[in-house]
Amino acid sequence: PYDVLRDYGTFETRRYPEHLVAEVTVDGPFDSAGSQAFRYLFAYITGANATGGKIAGPVAAQVIDAAVNQ
To answer: In which element (H, E) is residue 32 found?
Structure first.
């Protein structure tokens, strides 16, 4: 759900409702890092966070996997 603020023909300016973004960085091989990061995010969603509360649903998740060179 979003509101279109302005339609430019080839693109739109949109306003989306507030949302929560969670990001995890893990060390290790790329092929196993995704499942390691998922465990942290799942724990956060189910209550292992600062408030101890579960994240209210529905939970839509966009997952972006990227290797980070440090």
So the answer is: helix 30-45
Q: Which residues contact 22 (CB under 8 A, 6 or more apart)?
A: 41, 44, 45
SS3 4: strand
pLDDT tens digit string along 20-52?
A: 788 888 888 888 888 898 899 889 889 999 999
Residues 6+ apart with CB under 8 A from 24: 37, 40, 41
Distance CA 40, CA 49 (A): 10
3-state secondary structure of 40: helix
Contacts 24+ apart (CB under 8 A), 10-13: none
At 17, which amino acid appears? Answer: P
The CA distances from residue 35 to 12, 13, 38, 48, in Å, are 35, 35, 5, 17
